[in-house]
Design brief:
three-stranded antiparallel sheet; 16% strand
């Protein structure tokens, strides 16, 4: 960031929660993209400083990835997101899944 956003003004305090959410979502998109580009298969960690990130962010990431053609599944009590191309890739992790596949 070269400078502060122009809407970071005192009279915009009412939209600060949405601005914060958008910034966090952007940061998590970058983390997720780096994970995918590394071609790792052991699951994307959804914890930030020992806390699971906001469920709304997880939902946004999963929806956006599904639109791009990726399959996702949450595992280990919602702390890990598996991102894969087809069902066969996830077979070895079925014991850890905590929900239906998306």
């Amino acid at each position: 960031m070269k400078q502060f956003p122009s809407n970071l003004k005192p009279n915009n305090r009412i939209v600060f929660p949405q601005m914060k959410f958008n910034l966090l979502l952007e940061q998590w998109r970058i983390k997720c993209m780096n994970y995918i580009l590394k071609n790792e298969k052991n699951g994307f960690d959804l914890c930030d400083e020992n806390n699971i990130i906001d469920k709304r962010i997880i939902d946004c990431l999963r929806l956006e990835l599904s639109v791009l053609g990726w399959k996702t599944a949450l595992a280990y009590n919602g702390t890990i997101l598996f991102i894969y191309e087809n069902e066969n890739e996830l077979e070895k992790y079925k014991y850890a899944l905590c929900e239906e596949l998306l």
